Amino acid sequence: MADWQTSDARDRVIVALDLEHDAALDLARKLQGHAGWMKVGMTLFYECGPAVVAELKELGFRIFLDLKFHDIPHQVRGAARSAALTGADLMSVHSLGAGAMLAAARKGADEAAQLRGAPVSLVGITVLTSMDQDALASIGVGDEVAAEVDRLASLAYGSGANGVVCSPQEAARLRALLGPDALIVTPGVRPAGAALGDQSRVATPGDAMRAGASHVVVGRPITAAADPVAACDAIIDEIAEALS
Ligand code: C5P
């Protein structure tokens, strides 16, 4: 059984801290003991650097460092190594960089894991959920979105990534394709009745779990809630029910 399958519902929720430093830390303190994970994306990382990962680790969270590596293999190996040395537990890489680059990311992450004495997981980004069929065609990809997602997911998993990031609507298909152990991390999650914001292809946290997601990434339904702790707890309850 993969490590993530044994975790409780709190460990299936990754809160996207798309906020500036002080607000992010303030919210993280409130969510201690509630959500198990925080996601540090480019906005927060480019503002604060590796120190913010250490600060959040000190509060007891596991960290998804979502920097979406995409460069030549030599650079990506170094990037993955440096990023993993911040203490991140999970990192993202663009599957579009192809096999050699994905393998280089694995290598860099593993080098850091050995130095740290703790494993680091990698997830491959397939087709960004902001891209549609026309956007794919504009970069020369004539395949259907679903076929391209499946190809990139298989490539990432076969090249050493631990799983993928995908829309909850792709989770069931990718669970069948990749098997029971793969990480399937799904953003675009909205509790029933919540504001959609700029997300369009959404699912509830419970539905995402039932479709085979290992983790859900939730931002504004928690970060912009009047009571973020209550919003987080409601999502965790919904996940616990789906898992039971
Ligand atoms: O606020 P919201 O719940 O929409 O935040 C979702 C988070 O997941 C954001 O940090 C966003 O960048 C990220 N994300 C996404 N869609 C993807 C990949 C990442 O919404 N395909």
Q: What's the structural blueprint in terms of helices and strands?
A:
Blueprint: E1 13-16, H1 21-30, E2 37-41, H2 42-48, H3 51-58, E3 62-69, H4 73-84, E4 90-94, H5 98-116, E5 121-125, H6 133-138, H7 145-158, E6 163-165, H8 168-178, E7 183-186, H9 205-210, E8 215-218, H10 220-223, H11 228-243
Parallel strand pairs: 1-2, 1-8, 2-3, 3-4, 4-5, 5-6, 6-7, 7-8
Helix pairs in contact: 4-5, 7-8
Residues 16, 18, 41, 128-129, 165, 187-188, 197, 199, 217-221 line the site of cytidine-5'-monophosphate (C5P).
Description:
There is one protein chain. The protein is α/β, with parallel strands linked by helices. The protein has one domain: TIM Barrel (Alpha-Beta Barrel). It is built from eleven helices and eight strands. The protein has helices at 21-30, 42-48, 51-58, 73-84, 98-116, 133-138, 145-158, 168-178, 205-210, 220-223, 228-243, and strands at 13-16, 37-41, 62-69, 90-94, 121-125, 163-165, 183-186, 215-218. It has an eight-stranded parallel β-barrel with strand order 1-2-3-4-5-6-7-8, surrounded by six helices. Strand 7 (183-186), helix 9 (205-210) and strand 8 (215-218) form a beta-alpha-beta unit. The mean pLDDT is 95. Cytidine-5'-monophosphate is lined by residues 16, 18, 41, 128-129, 165, 187-188, 197, 199, 217-221.
